[in-house]
Amino acid sequence: MTLLQLKYIVKIVECGSMNEASHALYVSQPALSSSVKELENELGIEIFTRSSQGIALTVDGAEFLTYARQVLDQADLLEERYKHAKPRKQLCQVSTQHYMFAVEAFVEMINSIKSDEYEFTIRETRTRDIINQVANMQSEIGILYLSDFNKDVIGKLLREKHLEFHPLFRAPLHVFISRNNPLAAKKLITMEDLKPYPFIQYEQGEEGSFYFYEEAVWPEYSPKQINVTDRATILNFIIGLNGYTVCTGIDNGDLNNEKIVTVPLDSDETMLVGWITNERAKLSKAAETYLDKLKSVVADHGYKLID
């Protein structure tokens, strides 16, 4: 086993494919595949599963990746100490549902990092993709919510993929609506009140189901419904089409444009928002800093943190 082979494994996971990794490493794909196969034979484990859809980490591979990253970190420390080489870039990758507070914390984390070089990634994406990306160690942290409706299904999937859910805070449901909406002056809105207005929700793809929806409740029937994939679009539709969506109620600078308001929704349902991690992985310092900033941002918005 060599450090070069460990670097190959880490780069393949970061790129998500053998082909992209070979280009990034300036190594031919056959040579890269051969090196990985030699390592698998030496260790007696399968690190990647290979299919027509590409490659994915096995359970053994996910565990091996954790150790490989630790070894590479130690090797870089040696080089930094004795060769005066630059330290490795600060790295952190987060996958999240479409929460503004998650982005706000990410900004604060980057501002607090004292490093000349870093490479950070935040993905606002579908619920199933969040789970898969943390399971495959493409992201260190995933942010999503559990409710009475989805907790059994999501919880089972997390256990199967060796992921741990860490509660952050519990939020009563709110709706985002335009300040010009006739409902904006109400102190409490019902689903019946919302019937005339377009319901906007985040699209979850062909494999999505009610259990993966980002909205904890939805109308039994909505004659006007719009599916979107990004947060900027949903905010524009709320303003331009007088639509609404269901959310935690946490807002930030994006909403301080006097065009959108949050109003409590008349519902007994709540959202238990938290983060997921891979039980086989050790968080980087940057990821730990992000969690600290995440807790701080949530507390600053007036929500009680769950120990």
Automatic annotation (TrEMBL):
Q: Which Pfam families match?
A: HTH_1, LysR_substrate
- UniProt-listed CDD domains: PBP2_LTTR_substrate
> What keywords is this UniProt entry annotated with?
DNA-binding, Transcription, Transcription regulation
What InterPro entries does its record include?
LysR_HTH_N, LysR_subst-bd, WH-like_DNA-bd_sf, WH_DNA-bd_sf
Looking at the UniProt record for this protein, which Gene Ontology cellular component terms does it annotate, in alphabetical order? protein-DNA complex
Q: Where is the HTH lysR-type domain?
A: 1-58
State if Transcription is listed as a keyword.
yes
Annotated GO molecular function terms are:
DNA binding; DNA-binding transcription factor activity
Query: What does the sequence similarity comment in the record state about its family?
Result: Belongs to the LysR transcriptional regulatory family.
Q: What is this protein called?
A: LysR-type transcriptional regulator
Source species: Bifidobacterium saguini DSM 23967
Recall the taxonomic lineage recorded for the source organism. Answer: Bacteria, Bacillati, Actinomycetota, Actinomycetes, Bifidobacteriales
